[in-house]
Fold each of these.
Amino acid sequence: MEGAQAISRAATLLRVVSAAADGVTTAQAAQRAGTARTTAHRILSSLQEAGLLDRDRATGTWHLGPEMFLMGALAARRYDFVETARPAVRALADATGESAFLSLRRGDESVCVLREEGSFPLRSFVLQEGTRFPLGVASGGLALLSFLPDREADAYLDRADLVPQWGEAHSAERLRERIRLTRTAGYATNPALILEGSWGMASTVFDQHGRPAWAVSITGVETRFRAERRPHLGQLLLRTAHQLSTQNRLPHHGPGGGPQPGP
């Protein structure tokens, strides 16, 4: 059990580092991973020795290391859905003028794996490649949660406590209401619940078994998401999500919520 716990902590710290585009300090990594600073430093240092992490001597921040690059390059050959989806996400950014994204469901999280910039000069930077949110947080996470089977969605809401970090808007009761609205509209809307003035909308991409596997989303400033424009944006999102859902080159999810290679 001690070995398994150490591996779990190391994996958590790797995810924490991967989610920080500018790197993280030891104290930040420990806080985000929910572990003691001394424990975090010991594990981070071990990962550095293995080449999985690198540390900037000037700033003391941790970054992904060269071995992670090599592993990622090899994994990309198996999980090629990003490049498959890129033209459709690019077309969505062109059609809306907003930043467009593809996020992957990984267990109880959504992970941004692709960002394409729109032409509108004012942008939101809530979402970057590598950013992780719990299901139900941000438009992509809400879109994924909303189309899980009722039993799975209820089980998640029963065990997840999002309020301490994300506020009362992410209580189970409030999320259930937003799930209902998302299912009715077909797409999710995040009315600046993460960052003031930053709106987002998303639609669910389903795998070959009809399960929510990815989310395609757009973000931008509030004035670009007025009530009269949102139905048009929603239709563009639904069209893009349907296109991606029917591309059988996209991998499908296994029972654990991670991508599996398609046939």
Amino acid sequence: MRILFTGGSGKAGRHVVPYLIEQGHEVTNLDLVPLDVAGVKNLTGDLIEPVTVWNALTQPADFDELEGGNGVRPYDAVVHFAAIPRIMITSDNETFRTNTMSTYNVIEAAVGLGVRKIIFASSETTYGICFADGERKPEYIPVDEEHPTIPGDSYAMSKVCNEATARSFQQRSKADIYGLRINNVIEPHEYAKMFPAFVKDPDLRRRNIFAYIDARDLGRMVDCCLKTDGLGYEVFNVANPDASVDLTSDQIAERFYQGVPYKHEMAPDETMYSIGKARRLVGFNPVHSWRDEI
């Protein structure tokens, strides 16, 4: 597929884009800075400007595209990862404005130009736990996509708003638009640096619902969504199948979630951040585990 990928130069994108290229996709990265990866085409631009995405989707991405003599080839899909990645980087209002307006501009342009597959990055923060003021426990475990989204910060608010935007455009266009509620992204080099501390002090993972997603497996999830047609609008939790701490699910529940009801019986090594829906509907099968890395 020919894919316009926004934010490919970021922490997640710089692993997802190479994975997609390895799978045979043709990827144009639209970001503020280029991505130095073999095979990727780069365009730079600010997604807050409405015309940026429209232009990117309707202009050549590199010199080789001038050789056909048949005009600009259309894109088969848009993958939107570009965003201010958390609170406390800039002002709260700027975080909300940037994330919501960029997402609106991306989806509006893609739908307007007839793109039938749009995948966008939502977040674990939509459940209101990650950036809560004080401790907030989930209403039940494991947390699945039916869990209420009650954000308490500008970043999570922007992601919930983006989900509403996406659902509205899907209703209008009938395109496939899939939102990924991505958990804490871990790059391969971060395992040795971070996970020994998580094993020693599991409380460090409370705000991430004791979950994580390997950046390479995130690429696998995007590819699964690209290959799955006809779902309309859907959101998916995206995480690895195991917890990010060296405790069983029962031990996590006993230590951190006393009084929180189980939605279903959990396997000892099952993540508190359910990926059952992604497995069932798009065939997501993560292969990386922190236990193999350290």
Amino acid sequence: MIAPPSRAAEQAARTRLAALAKPLGALGRVEDLAAWLAGCQDSCPPRPPERVRLTVLAGDHGIAAKGVSAYPPQVTAAMVHAFASGTAAAGVLARQHGVALRVLDIAVDADLDTPAGVGAHKIRRSSGSIDVEDALTAAELDAALLAGRAIAREEIEAGADLLILGDMGIGNTTPEAALIAATFGLTADEVVGRGTGVDDAGLARKTAAVAAALARAGDRASDPRARLQALGSADLAAGVGFLIAAATAGVPVLLDGLATLAELSVADELAPGTAAWCAAGHRSTEPAQRLALEKLGLLPVLDLDLRLGEGSGALLALPVLRSAALLAGEMALLSDLAG
């Protein structure tokens, strides 16, 4: 069980927010963000996050060969190069908001010619096709979880006061949907969305693949480790380890889209209390992500019909979180004006 954020600091922040020079509750959910951040920092008022670090975990997925994506698997390797060069969408947004970005090859199905360190935590090339086989061996699962923990520690040691977790991998919404379905007892029809924009035939193939994966995993999926091994991937398992390590260290995480919600759904079961250290950056168009938000009790900051991934939605939400802290700390108190 992971220790929760400071309830005393959160309550102190809510008391301060209620006393600001404004009608009670007039800042709506911005006040909730400020209180959450205060609890995570054990500080009232909270400090605007300044040392924000985005880690993009990249990996391929065997299920992509079954026609579940609108793009071929080779795009994953190309996008890793775009992240490394800063030309991906997340790179543009990271520069805008002063966020340090690191991309890591966890399971890309290629030997990449990228800057040193990108492959430092590589587990394997691609992951198993979950409709017919487990995504990982037990040893690979352990290695991926440990890699994720190590990556989070590296980001924290680099000075992060807020972490963002991004994803890159063609076909990844299929295992993500399967993990969420298995975690919350949902069906393939309930969780599967169009991902990269598949047509009706692609959507049918994707739904059938998730249904087959859930049937193959069977009762094993009731155990979070076995679920991750059977239905996940190396990059998703690394994300689970990352979230657990961040929560254990008391460093808040601003979540992105479907990938991070799938990772959190398993992480919070393996290490109860992880979700309390996470805020949802946005609500995506993917039904599995929306359902996981509801099940985990997370209200997203933004709702912009995003479905890109990469950490892009969290990066777009970051200014709102920073504004929440500034308002809590710098607005006048009503009592000061009255005096």
